[in-house]
Amino acid sequence: MINEYVEIANYYDNLLTSGYYNFDYLSNILYNLLGARRKVLDIGVGTGLLTEKMLSLANYKIVGVDFSSRMLETAKKRLAISDVKLICQDMTEFETEEKFEAIVSTGGVIAAVEEEGEYRIYSHITDPEKNKQLLAKLHSQLDDGGLLALAIQGPHNNYKKEIKDEIFYEQKIKKEGNYVDKWYVFSQANGEVLREQFCRFYFFDGRQTTQALIDAGFQQEYQIIDGKFLVTYK
Ligand SMILES: C[S@@+](CC[C@H](N)C(=O)[O-])C[C@H]1O[C@@H](n2cnc3c(N)ncnc32)[C@H](O)[C@@H]1O
User: Fold this and answer.
1) Which ligand 1 atom sits nearest the alpha carbon of residue 71?
2) d(CA 3, ligand 1 centre) in Å
3) 148-163: pLDDT as tens digits
4) What is the 3-state secondary structure (H, E, C) of the chain?
């Protein structure tokens, strides 16, 4: 399935813990932001890197959804001693009676990107209408006073760098309209490619992002917290 992280699952943690995200920092910001909120939904929980750090700070009740069973396998091992609920499902199909006090994402199903002087919602879901439906559903899955917190990434650029264990990571980006194609390539020092993954994102530009959040029912103004999270309230 498109945008399901399968091929690169074995290399994912290496990349993410080689400076891609600082999960200690992000979880601390969330800890301050969430206050007494404990019931959290992580959309696109991946291998559970954020969840692990959040649980080291407070007894959150976390539900993590991801449609990649390969990513969840790693999350299960990482979070074995916790009572995190991991659900293997496409977020567009995830329904629950449960209400959450916070919905979080670090590069998950949807994320925020600061690009060309504005904040944009980037999504692994490539259909704009489905994204609008997802945002409305997320709004409905929040308790009154609940919040949606999307980690902010920098612009998507082409680059190559060495990560851990003498592995090289290269990302290649192609932009067309509101679509961004991204190739993740992992290789050895001699250039031999170990794994590749292709992802396609749809993004809402700055104006569309504000409008999509309002249309979904969120409060008029989103907030930027420490430059790292775009936060909007029910
Ligand atoms: C870049 S990874 C981020 C993982 C994790 N949040 C982290 O910080 O490491 C994106 C994750 O979103 C998942 N994903 C993408 N689209 C999804 C969808 N429609 N439903 C559920 N999971 C999805 C992928 O399988 C992948 O694990």
Assistant:
1) 27
2) 8
3) 999 999 998 999 999 9
4) CCCCCCCCHHHHHHHHHHHHCCHHHHHHHHHHHHCCCCEEEEECCCCCHHHHHHHCCCCCEEEEEECCHHHHHHHHHHCCCCCCEEEECCHHHCCCCCCEEEEEECCCCEEEEEECCEEEEEECCCCHHHHHHHHHHHHHCEEEEEEEEEEEECCCCCEEEECHHHEEEEEEEEEECCEEEEEEEEEECCCCEEEEEEEEEEEECHHHHHHHHHHCCCCCCCEEECCCEEEEEC
Ligand 1 pocket check for 65: Cβ under 6 Å: yes
Q: Is the minimum distance from the CB of 48 to ligand 1 under 6 angstroms?
A: no
Superfamily of domain 9-13+20-155+205-233 in the CATH hierarchy: Vaccinia Virus protein VP39 (3.40.50.150)
Reported as a single tens digit per residue, the pLDDT across 216-226 is: 999 989 999 99
Q: Is the pLDDT of residue 4 over 80?
A: no
Mutate to test the pocket of ligand 1, among 2, 4, 92 (most ligand atoms within 8 A of CB): 4
pLDDT tens by residue, 63-111: 999 999 999 999 999 999 889 999 999 999 999 999 999 999 999 999 9
